[in-house]
Backbone:
């Protein structure tokens, strides 16, 4: 029969013993040193503070933890260590007659427990290795769960878009024709009547404006369901932006909003469907203008950027499949408006999410824009600025 003390494991493990009782840690060290090839590193410390210090400077596979230390006692010791180092396996080393406490520690993040004086070298080795394996599986499970949640959220969004898309195009077509008839009728009537009375003229104007607004909403809806067809060409993004500015100039002037441009003249070309991207910029400019009803400045900036390794700044670039070394073109739109409430910022890309229902908001601008940017394999991010107002960042592949 094989000697139970010499179980053949393949990977040597590193162990941190946290134990203030000298006899207890001597016993542990002695038992562990019976199987030296199975251990790559063994370190003993006698307080929680020194355990934290060791874990922050070195990597250990497993911690054998006494709960009652000079600087921390009971479950808190375990909770604190588990919170700070969630990826390290922890085996609690409890005193004799503390089996019940040992079981409880499993609920606070320990992978297993040992009862002092009641284990052999074999049990000790087995417990440590099982704990490491359990931790590894726990991490894998957590990652899989996280991924699943993300995928689920994406699927829901895609499904929602599909439903909205088909509903929208159906309704839009039905409404577009009657609207055209109304517009034709009203134009015809006003030409026939040629009203001199200012009030009657105003009524005609108001009707035409209302039709215009309805038409715009319908175009949005139709675009929403059609954006999968792109007509991409190499374009100068600055030109596309200038064109969009032209189209919102009137709105901006009316609200006393000034657009301050800082466009990089050496921008590399980007491959885009210019009509679609124009539509994105128009949506973004209109949102910024609408956020500043009493006037203000929109700061607009374009620049190119070669992606360096993850430095923390612009973390969204790295989350979005852009690769290190790739050159991207970035456009940034900052306004001085009201900003977006924290609890709403995650919803602004949802179709039909609007905080301006009474002012004619439909809540399609940003969801359409995001769709357009997504099928260009670009990225759009929206955030509140520290100094107030919103910043929208767009990234395009070159
Ligand atoms: N620049 C901005 N400043 C403040 N809030 C904004 C801005 N852009 C978008 N939002 C918020 O996001 C919501 C959704 O925007 P959007 O999809 O364009 O729909 P809509 O403009 O029709 O409301 C807006 O109702 C508003 O609450
Ligand atoms: Mg909008």
Residues:
């Amino acid at each position: 029969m094989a000697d139970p003390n010499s179980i053949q494991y393949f990977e040597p493990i590193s162990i941190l013993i946290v134990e203030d009782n000298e006899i207890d840690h001597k016993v542990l060290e002695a038992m562990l040193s019976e199987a030296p090839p199975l251990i790559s590193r063994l370190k003993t410390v006698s307080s929680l503070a020194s355990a934290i210090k060791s874990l922050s400077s070195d990597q250990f596979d497993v911690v054998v933890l006494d709960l009652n230390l000079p600087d921390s006692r009971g479950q808190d010791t375990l909770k604190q260590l588990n919170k700070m180092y969630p990826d390290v396996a922890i085996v609690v080393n409890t005193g004799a007659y503390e089996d019940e406490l040992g079981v409880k520690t499993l609920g606070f993040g320990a992978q297993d427990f040992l009862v002092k004086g009641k284990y052999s070298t074999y049990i000790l080795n087995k417990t440590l290795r099982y704990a490491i394996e359990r931790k590894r599986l726990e991490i894998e499970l957590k990652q899989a769960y996280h991924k699943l949640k993300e995928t689920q959220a994406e699927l829901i969004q895609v499904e929602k878009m599909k439903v909205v898309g088909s509903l929208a195009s159906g309704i839009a077509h039905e409404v577009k024709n009657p609207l055209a008839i109304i517009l034709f009728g009203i134009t015809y009537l006003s030409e026939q009547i040629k009203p001199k009375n200012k009030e009657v003229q105003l009524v005609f104007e108001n009707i035409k404006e209302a039709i215009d607004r309805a038409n715009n909403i319908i175009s949005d809806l139709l675009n929403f369901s059609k954006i999968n067809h792109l007509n991409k060409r190499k374009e100068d993004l600055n030109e596309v932006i200038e064109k969009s500015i032209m189209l919102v100039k009137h709105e901006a002037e009316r609200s006393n909003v000034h657009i301050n441009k800082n466009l990089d003249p050496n921008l590399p070309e980007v491959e885009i469907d210019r009509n679609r991207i124009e539509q994105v910029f128009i949506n973004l400019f209109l949102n910024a203008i609408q956020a500043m009803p009493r006037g203000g400045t929109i700061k607009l900036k374009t620049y190119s950027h070669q992606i360096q390794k993850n430095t923390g700044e612009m973390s969204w670039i790295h989350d979005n499949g852009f690769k290190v070394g790739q050159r991207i073109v970035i456009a940034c739109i900052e306004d001085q408006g009201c900003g977006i409430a924290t609890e709403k910022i995650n919803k602004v890309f949802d179709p039909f999410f609007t905080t301006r229902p009474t002012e004619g908001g439909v809540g399609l601008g940003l969801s359409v824009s995001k769709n357009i940017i997504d099928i260009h394999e670009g990225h759009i991010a929206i955030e509140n600025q520290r100094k107030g107002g919103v910043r929208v960042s767009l990234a395009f592949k070159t």
